[in-house]
Design brief:
This protein is α+β, with helices and mostly antiparallel strands. The protein has 2 domains: 105 residues, 2-Layer Sandwich (Alpha-Beta Plaits); 55 residues, Roll (SH3 type barrels). The protein is 21% helix and 40% strand. It has 4 helices and 13 strands. The strands form 4 sheets. A 5-stranded antiparallel beta sheet has the order 12-11-10-9-13, with no helix packed on it. The longest helix is centred in the middle third of the chain and has 13 residues.
């Protein structure tokens, strides 16, 4: 993916390898800073929590930063730290005088999102899980190796109709979901 270079008010320079940097900003300015940095070509995230309050019989829900003053920025262009500090009071977290760089999985964990490995594993499990209306193969049990048509899935059980056992009518049955494998058609 090619990202077009654009510098908003001189906040960034040339393109770089994308890197996540935790940064601090003024409390309650996270949303404003996020908008400004996104205009400069950065990806900005910060964990939020939904607060509910009731006033005059009405319910108000607001989304607030979970950790006040902390944002995570993925830079696609080299940032000008001194300009960010002067204009928006945004500072990178430093270790030994150098901005700390996080990997994407660390940012995902902090945000409460699945990591890349977890997303891949979830997609693999989803791809092998039987779906209602599809054909599947029984992996274990009395009818192991038999193809079935899945009719319902409830509470970890797959309900099915057998496919052509030589009888005039199909048999109905159920099996634990881990014993039924989806068949690609």
């Amino acid at each position: 993916m090619t990202i077009q270079f654009r510098s908003v008010r001189g906040l960034t320079k040339e393109p770089i390898t994308p890197a996540w940097v935790p940064m601090t900003t003024l409390s309650q300015k996270e949303k404003y800073v996020k908008a400004m940095l996104e205009m400069a070509g950065a990806t900005v995230m910060y964990p939020t929590v939904t607060k509910v309050r009731h006033h005059a019989g009405k319910k108000y829900e607001t989304e607030r930063p979970f950790i006040s003053g902390l944002i995570y920025v993925q830079w696609h262009f080299r940032p000008l730290w001194h300009v960010l500090r002067e204009r928006y009071n945004v500072k990178p977290m430093l270790i030994g005088g150098v901005p700390y760089v996080m990997n994407a999985d660390s940012v995902s964990r902090v945000m409460g999102l699945p990591t890349e490995a977890e997303r891949i594993e979830a997609a693999r499990i989803e791809a092998t899980m039987p779906k209602v209306g599809e054909r599947a193969l029984l992996a274990e049990g009395l009818l192991a190796g038999q193809y079935v048509d899945v009719t319902a899935i409830h509470d970890g059980e797959v309900w099915f109709d057998t496919v052509n056992l030589g009888f005039k009518m199909a048999m109905k049955g159920s099996a634990p979901i881990e014993n039924v494998v989806r068949v690609a058609e």
